[in-house]
Design brief:
The structure holds two protein chains of two kinds.
Chain A lengths: L13 H4 L26 H14 L9 H17 L2 H21 L11 H12 L5 H14 L3 H6 L13
Helix pairs in contact in A: 2-4, 2-5, 3-6, 4-5, 4-6
Chain B lengths: L4 E2 L7 E10 L3 H12 L4 E4 L7 H5 L3 H8 L9 E3 L5 E3 L21 H9 L8 H14 L2 E3 L7 H13 L4 E2 L1 E3 L25 H7 L3 E4 L1 E9 L2 E9 L10 E11 L6 H7 L18 E7 L14 E3 L7 E5 L4 H6 L6 H7 L5 E8 L5 E4 L7 E5 L2 H20 L4 E3 L10 H10 L11 E3 L29 E3 L14 H17 L1
Helix pairs in contact in B: 1-7, 1-13, 5-13, 6-11
Classes of the chains: A mainly alpha, B alpha/beta.
């Protein structure tokens, strides 16, 4: 269980401030005037493939994470990629596309990956991860994990402690 | 006092005059701009990135910081040449530049490096004695002090225990923080406002002294008349998607470039400056860095403590420095093996992970190459000595954690999994001696040297006063002038050299 953080002289970011689960969409960016502009977007097809990969990656005992958590993850991922540049989007599009073809083949199923059931997707992704093609998953897993564990629910489930070392008076 | 002006909100051409125009608002540009403005000059600072106040940055999650303040959302990577790793190069693209994103570590330039600059590069006035007043000035301004031992995270304490058992020690780091409470998120914003980046120190001073600062302004070329710089031109990033829009034109008596080691050489190349030397964009050093992780039986919670608090330079002769470090839980989770239940189970071990970092004092085999778009290709070839240093760092880092009682170590090698003592012993005997650098998972926060300082136009881009050899009144004041790899975090060196530059410019 995450202990509530100490009070601060100003409002800290919501994931540190809220020890309780949050509703989808409740985690807002501060109204910073210098937000990086959105320079493009991933296609819906690639986002669906990425969501299918994410559900398998973060599934536990054969169950995918709650739909609202996945929706939050994909909204955040889409926003992240929209603010990377074309080179970054191309790299992640290529990785998702390659996984959508290679993972089913490694797991003895027919592509495309996103149309497989969850159990098959897990089997195929495990097969890919255990093969020489595992680097395909590396960058995608890094970004998805970074965002996913910013959500307080999975962070709490993994036992991550988000507080500071020193408890300071307000 | 001026506020920061936002180019994205400006809907017409921008034509300005100034005594001095500074391109870039990071560690070098902010310092130079501040000192020149405080001396009474009319200073204009142009920054390509947006403006996020440190208080706003404090509220961001790591992935938000990456996408809004980091260049290319933190996804910049080198093109590896030969047996070299692909290196993720992290740079800021915001008001305050990479200074907003550092761990706050402040090392003075090592004596051995200064000696090399004097004896091999001919920079005889870059001595510790001559730099002393500039160091002090910067250290006072950004509140550099030792990180107290009680602020060390458990992760760092464990590595220290292992180091003691192996016969070497950790020393306290110096950082530019004030009242740090140990959130360990310095790279992504400081929730307690303790980190004294230029966004909290030099830039507010510069604005108070009358400097003007425009964000969202892309400088594309230095204007010259005969052999003198007379201003800069570019575009205001005010079209949808942050694309270049209105024209930007600045007339100034002096032009100072401080866009960092990757973008300053691009600007010089686009302006036709320094062609004769053949050195613009070359000699890039990166300090390739990686982390070594270990799983302990006890709960470590390594994110509680100062992000960087201790280091060991005992292996500097072998080209390695060990630095304490930590990364957000999500990034740690990404390093855990498996998918599905296997991954979830492995991730539950994250609170038991300790981390320590290693920096390589590299020989410098990189270059920056212009492409048709804004982002360049960064090529990097690792030297033989660097590969040996990599193996030394992996071996000693893992042995240190085992000496502290680790159950498993996780090395930053593509495709590798956790290793217990026996597995590591076998790895050390059979695999490590021939380990390819291509397999190393590597990052860099310290690009340096692409417009290096020197004693003649044939082997350098700027002279000892930071002025371009072939264009008068054009100066470079960022990490690109650092003549060689430092082997330590460069923030303080860059700020000190910028201070020296500004003071000398004012004296002349």
């Amino acid at each position: 269980m995450i202990e509530p953080p100490p009070p601060l002289p100003f409002e800290p970011h919501p994931l540190v401030a809220l020890p309780q689960p949050v509703k989808p969409g409740a985690i807002d960016l501060p109204r910073a005037c210098g937000q990086a502009p959105q320079t493009g977007a991933l296609s819906q097809s690639i986002l669906h493939t990425t969501q299918a990969i994410a559900e398998a990656l973060f599934s536990n005992e054969g169950h995918a994470p709650p739909p609202e958590r996945m929706q939050w993850l994909m909204d955040e991922y889409a926003d992240f990629m929209s603010r990377a540049n074309a080179r970054g989007r191309f790299m992640f599009t290529a990785a998702a596309w390659a996984i959508s073809i290679a993972a089913p083949m490694m797991g003895g199923r027919w592509p495309p990956y996103r149309k497989l059931g969850l159990a098959d997707r897990i089997t195929c992704l495990q097969a890919l991860d255990a093969s020489a093609l595992s680097p395909l998953l590396l960058a995608l897993k890094a970004i998805l994990c970074m965002i996913y564990y910013e959500h307080p629910d999975p962070a709490r489930e993994a036992g991550m402690n988000l507080g500071p070392k020193v408890q300071r008076d307000a | 006092m001026h506020d920061v002006q936002h180019g994205r909100d400006h809907d017409s051409d921008l034509v300005l005059d100034a005594d001095v125009v500074v391109v870039g608002s990071g560690a070098g540009g902010a310092v130079a701009a501040c000192l020149l403005a405080e001396a009474g000059l009319d200073v204009l600072i142009l920054e390509e990135g947006g403006h996020v106040h440190p208080d706003e940055h404090a509220k961001m999650r790591p992935s938000q910081s990456l996408r809004h303040l980091w260049r290319e959302a933190g996804l910049t990577a080198t093109m590896a040449l030969g047996d070299s790793p692909l290196i993720n190069v992290m740079m800021g693209r915001c008001v305050g530049g990479s200074s907003m994103l550092t761990g706050g570590v402040c090392f003075r330039t090592p004596q051995a490096v200064l000696h090399e600059w004097q004896t091999k590069r001919g920079l005889v006035d870059l001595t510790a004695e001559q730099l002393e007043p500039y160091y002090r000035e910067v250290e006072d301004a950004i509140h550099v002090s030792d990180v107290p031992e009680h602020m060390r995270s458990r992760s760092t304490q464990l590595f220290g225990e292992g180091a003691r058992k192996l016969g070497y020690s950790l020393k306290p780091m110096r950082r530019n923080t004030k009242d740090c409470v140990g959130w360990s998120t310095c790279n992504f914003g400081c929730p307690s406002g303790a980190k004294m980046s230029v966004g909290r120190s030099y830039l507010p001073r510069a604005l108070r002294a009358g400097a003007r600062l425009w964000s969202d302004c892309l400088v594309q070329k230095v204007d010259t008349e005969y052999d003198r710089a007379v201003g800069v031109r570019g575009r205001v990033l005010n079209r949808p998607g942050g694309r270049p829009g209105s024209r930007l034109r600045v007339r100034a008596q002096r032009v100072i470039l401080a866009a960092g080691s990757v973008y300053t050489p691009l600007l010089l190349q686009a302006s036709g400056v320094g062609r004769g030397s053949g050195q613009v964009g070359r000699n890039l050093t990166l300090h390739p860095a990686f982390r070594i992780m270990a799983r302990f039986d006890e709960r470590v919670d390594g994110g509680q403590g100062a992000l960087q608090s201790a280091f060991s330079s005992d292996f500097e002769p072998q080209g390695v420095q060990f630095n304490s470090v930590f990364v957000p839980g999500g990034i740690l989770a990404a390093t855990q093996p498996g998918v599905g239940s296997d991954h979830v189970k492995a991730t539950s071990q994250v609170p038991h992970l300790a981390i320590f970092g290693a920096n390589l004092h590299d020989e410098g085999g990189g270059a920056v190459h212009r492409l048709w778009g804004r982002e360049p290709i960064i090529s990097y070839r690792m030297g033989n000595a660097d590969r040996e240093a990599m193996r030394t760092a992996l071996r000693i880092g893992a042995q240190t954690f085992f000496a502290a009682g680790a159950q498993e170590v996780f090395l930053p090698i593509l495709g590798s999994h956790g290793m217990n003592r026996d597995q590591f012993a076998s790895f050390m005997q059979h695999d490590l001696p021939t380990l390819s650098a291509k397999k190393l998972e590597c990052t860099s926060q310290h690009p340096l040297g692409t417009c290096r300082m020197g004693t003649n136009a044939g082997n350098s881009v700027v002279d000892h006063n930071h002025q371009a050899w072939d264009v008068q009144n054009l100066y470079v004041a960022d990490g690109s002038v650092v003549p060689t790899s430092l082997g330590v975090n460069p923030q303080l060196t860059i700020m000190t050299m910028a201070t020296r530059f500004a003071r000398r410019l004012l004296a002349h």
